[in-house]
Amino acid sequence: MSVTVRAAAPVEQRPRRRSRATLAAGFVVLIGVLAVVCFFSITMGARGVGLPTIWKAFTDYEPTNAAETVIRELRVPRTLIGIFAGAALGLSGAILQGVTRNPLADPGIMGINTGAATAIVFAIMVLGTQSTSTYVWFAFAGAGVATVTVYGIASFGREGATPVKLALAGAAVTAILSSVTSAIVMTNVSALNELRFWQVGSLAGRYFPVFWQTLPFLVIGIVLALGTGRALNGLALGEDLALALGQRVRLTRVMMFVTVAILCGAATSACGPIVFVGLIVPHLARMICGPDYRWILSYSLLLTPIVLLVADIIGRVVVSPGELQVGVVLGVVGAPAFIALVRYRNLAEL
Amino acid sequence: MATTLDVPLVRSGRAHRRRRSTTVTVVLAVIALCLFVLTMMVGSYYVSPIDVVGSVLGLSDDPTNAFIVRDLRLPTAAGGLAVGVALGISGLVFQKLLGNPLASPDFVGVSSGASLLAVTSIVIFNASSAVISGSALVGALLTAVLIYLLAWRGGLSGYRFILIGIAVSEFMLSVVGYIISRAELYEAREAMTWLVGTIGQAGAGELRTLIGALVVLVPVALVLERPLRTLELGDDTAKALGSRVELNRLVLIGLSIVLIGLSVAVAGPIMFVALIAGPIAQRLTGPSGGVLAAGLVGAIIVLGADLVAQQLLPVPLPTGVVTGIIGAPYLIWLLATVNREGRGG
């Protein structure tokens, strides 16, 4: 085990290593931060509620009390979806970056968002479905098909799915799918109307049915993802070394992509396309923990929901009583953060 | 590699390549012209090619044909030609300057800035088409300057430029998504149609500006074609060869940004044309081919895509719907060549 860890550090420009105790302490602190953020996510919004109301909503629920209903039916599912979807996006970002060794790999590059969008407008056109809980399945299927196609196209040839080939394959699949989507949307007004709300990415209006639908996939995906740390450490050495260390590289890779497809597909079908968190948080985690993927994954697991929920709270507060979708907040805040990262750190080294 | 050059052999090779590139360019020009005429022939009312040419040149005295060709179809055809040429040229210049086949203006975010301002003026200000075009142009130019400034750090690295372009693009597009989600349905529909891009929507004024810009800038691009090829060798080599690196690069980037901005103002952000025109032209003409061929390939793609979108599909659709489907096979083919040449990393 120690061999893997030591070798995983890049030879040049070794990041600062923190002791295991420090990292574990940090992990506990993050759990506390997440709990605080959850509390604010439940209390803050167009209708502020106090601690006693929350307590009463869970112990002695009165369906006629508007504030208690808001908490139980809106804020709690929203926060839960935020936690799980955030964890899913962060973990899949970390895995994608590790397995492709590409600092820019994110679900968008894999065609997941356009795949889900196409499936949704297709479902509206053909079946006329109009409910969020039916979309979930279509979005999930669309995301899965798109990922498999992108990875399949990219892994032809000797080197397998290299960063450049993944980017090209993702762009190609996105091109076809976005053509199909816009052709449908141009001819079907109700598809356009649904798509324009879905495509910003939001936690609003996601109630318990959506949460229960996606929960099994998210849990399975998160468990699978947390188990990939050692394999990712091996892959970080390069394919040849990982092979020499006795890893079954191709199998691990396929397994990881399956995990990513499950995680991102479920998260995207629950919240719509959410950009940037999956891309940035793993970098943040790497800056804190150094190169060991087991720590990067654990930190991403907590950091991403924190970032996502904070963005969601910001979106609720800044234009209160209206609300800014979490996808918009992340785009507007995340892009400058990403630009800063690109300007001050050499992202290409991974 | 031989240390002494066989001068006559090199010379004949060069002459051969030049002949090939000239031939290909002429053939491309002929195809583009044919599609240009064809666009004006077909529709709900057929006009013969002779009548089309006669009406365009003002030789025909048939008022029906003259009205249909000159007033109804010429703007679309001319728009397709001009937008295609502009996209092709600026795409090629971007790709060569940044040394990356993915560095087309629509990937690195110039078009998204145009989209943001255009969608704002559609949804929030209910603007007329002239204002929409104007704001698209301003958006493209401002975004380009912004990306250039953010990516500049004691020099311009292609990789950093692309990454920052993508981030700026995501920023703009998330705001666009927000505006569209807040709009009335009919406004959202108008905005989405604009975002797909179609060559028929141009106003006469914008079209005239674009054509005027092409008349001025295409010769400039042709003059700078040689420095562009020198720049491709890297800044140091280009400097050693006596090229005025910064000046040439600034003029070339400025030129392609103006072309992109104007073409987005005319037709909206038609995807993938700028991405694929340059490399296709390069394949056809060989390494010495260039700017003019890329422009012509762009025109062929746009005019062809519009013919498909308007005539062959069961419902007429915006041009941009079809260009994506043309773009994808090209990207996959690019993947295949990346494989073959073994530079997949």
Overview of this protein structure:
The complex is a heterodimer of chains A (350) and B (345). In chain A, 75% of the residues lie in helices and 0% in strands. With 350 residues, chain A is mainly α. Chain A has one domain: ABC transporter involved in vitamin B12 uptake, BtuC. Chain A is globular and about 65 Å long. Residues 1-13 of chain A have low confidence and may be disordered. Chain B is mainly α. In chain B, helix 1 (7-41) packs parallel to helix 13, helix 5 (129-151) packs antiparallel against helix 6 (158-182) and helix 8 packs antiparallel against helix 11. The longest helix of chain B is centred in the N-terminal third of the chain and has 36 residues, at 63-98. Classes of the chains: A mainly alpha (350), B mainly alpha (345). The interface between A and B is large, with 51 and 50 residues.
Helix content bin of chain A: over 70%
What is the count of helical runs of chain A?
A: 15
How would you classify the quaternary structure? heterodimer
Structural class by helix and strand composition of chain B: mainly alpha
Q: Termini distance of chain A?
A: 21 Å
The succession of helices and strands of chain A, N to C, reads HHHHHHHHHHHHHHH
Order of helices and strands of chain B: HHHHHHHHHHHHHH
- Bin the strand percentage of chain A: under 5%
Overall CATH architecture of chain B: Orthogonal Bundle
Uncertain regions of chain A: pLDDT < 50 for 5+ in a row? 1-13
Strand-pairing-aware structural class of chain A? mainly alpha
Largest interface: A-B, 51 and 50 residues
**Backbone shape of chain A:** globular
